[in-house]
Amino acid sequence: MATCKYCGWESYGSGCPNSPTGNHEHSDDEKHCVYCGWENYGSGCPYSPTGNHVHGSGAKKCKHCGWESYGSGCPYSPTGNHEM
Ligand SMILES: [Zn+2]
Ligand SMILES: [Zn+2]
Ligand SMILES: [Zn+2]
Ligand 1 center to residue 74 CA distance, Å? Predict the structure, then answer.
């Protein structure tokens, strides 16, 4: 099971003692949002700084929307580009 990269905690949400945002972040889980554990992409993340779910790296997919290549046109990335 993925754990918070800052403190090793297994849950999501606020209260992380080491994170710059104060929220736990599970950065190595590409199947789930690193901030809340949601399996999908898009808006509505309660803990993400941008309000959008962000998946972990590791898969060859955009961490913001799940797209499988690079380039512009990402609907959820802060830069508008897909990022892996
Ligand atoms: Zn943490
Ligand atoms: Zn989320
Ligand atoms: Zn994308």
Answer: 28
